[in-house]
Request: fold
Amino acid sequence: MIRITTIGLVAALGLLAACQDAGQGAQTAKDKASATTGATATASIPRYDAKTFFETTTYAMPSGAGFAFFPDGQSVLVSSDKSGIFNAYAISIADGAARPLSDSTTNAVFAVSVFPTDGRILYTFDGGGNELNHVYVREEDGTTRDLTPGEKLKAQFVGWSGDGTGFYLASNERNPRYFDLYRYDRDGYARTLVFENSGYQLDAVSPDGNWLAVSKNNSSADSDIFLVDLRSADKTPKLISIHDGNISYGVYGFSADSAALEYSTNEHGEFNQAWSYDLASGAKTPLVQADWDVSFTVTSNSGQYRVTGINADARTKVSLTNAATGEELALPDLPPGDIRNIRFSGDENKIAFLLNGDTSPSNVHVVDLKAGTDKVLTHALNPAIDSAMLVDSQVVRYESFDGLKIPGILYRPKTANAGHKAPAVVLVHGGPGGQSRTGYNPMVQHLVNHGYVVLAANNRGSSGYGKTFFHMDDKRHGEVDLQDIVYARQYLESLDWVDGDHVAIMGGSYGGYMVAAALAFEPEAFDAGIDIFGVTNWVRTLKSIPPWWESFKKSLYDEMGDPAVDEERHRRISPLFHAGNITKPLLVVQGMNDPRVLKVESDELVEKVRANGVEVEYLVFPDEGHGFRSRKNRIAASEAYVDFLNKTLKR
Reply:
């Protein structure tokens, strides 16, 4: 199964249980009990520094169509920041020993696939966060080779051919705006241009190599999918999603036998459902339906098994079924958490995956499907941390200015109760169409461990809650979505274990924009702000987007506004032009190499706010882009967050 991971709108501007209605600040029985009997005594909670939290090891499995199991079945391929920065490793299934396959000390290296016939691997990295990734091969003798050489190009792994004799890469070397598709021979790496792109988003190649699925955004609410017959001299994409009105279509991949395209659509309701398109007849039939978005569905290479993930209220519900009968396979008892990145062994007798929970970072598991056994290969949490001291999240709802219920993920410090109220942070995700989700987050756990309530708000415009909710902020950014964040504070003030007089706002990328917007347009709403590589000048940002975002630029402009005609509005919602209103303390964090939010934006904001006589701290990382790749930088940033909050919220 071959699937291309492309940069969508969320990635472009953003940094992967039953819901409980808490709109009126109602307390659960557990909350009331804590308020009555007293929460855990402050003295009994150890305070861990950021270094302790971030010395927890992060593991990642090959995503998309990458193979994780080595052909001998003795080890699996992962990426890990075990050394302080991400590198590729082979982890032994027998004893969990990690053998390094790369040794970078500067650029984060991410493994993308094992070769299906031998011990070679493919991996990728960019230049200090500039997002200009190249794809490399590591030979079995340890030598390496850049398969996508050149200046100022971006390349990505696509997947393997069904017979394993070749693999596909995409590159924008011919035209910076478009990714062309190339096939590489497994042996010798001879390259053939398969599809010359003229503005489509590449999505998937059929296992037999005969078909390519591509898509195009017509607007932020409307998109189409197309098929390209790669055997034909005429490779003009053929539209297969003929429809009226605003309907979104996306591609999951092709069936294992190359007979059908499996795609997503919200044509039949609020949420994305999985459908199948028969390549021979053109018939469309439902494949997977749920009351939430079907995030992914994919079969094993033989087609015997199907893996499906449902985005159920900020948690991923994964099922493994017999593809022919639909019967669900029972997995061994696993610790609580979300299963991520399931990968099959070559004989399909084993699966490897990550398991991530609120109080447990992602660990690599291998399940023997025949024996029904589970083996944990890693122990990611720093042993210096007592996991019992970490905090589970709670999915909540609160009312916004117009009565709309806003979902959020709430973290309560163990020491917080009515007699010991805790200051709070409203955390805003990136995007603008991102989603805060449950799961382990060392930055959040560090804040909570130091006594801060954290409410990760999923304001209107967030993904995962249906198409109506998702589009409620279109061309209303910095307005209605900002009010959702302001009302998050009012919700926190309604909880008797929260110190409602001391609440900060914090966020990265679009969330960073929301921080600056809140301080500029609602200057009394929060007591301090932490802006992490946030947009401050939409006029500049929308005119300077990288050329490789071309395939979804129309969708971006439809949601945010076209800079050619909407500059007046962009100036109106840009905090930089209203920085004179900012009176509350501000911490700004920026990566020197950020290609999305240019450093000059943060420079100018800091200069203007300081001119107001306001306390501003500015932290610039010379070796980072849009986000953090280096552990030392994550540690420095997280310590800066807590130090800043200690100074501004606990005076």
The first strand starts at residue 20 and ends at 21. The chain has a mean pLDDT of 90.
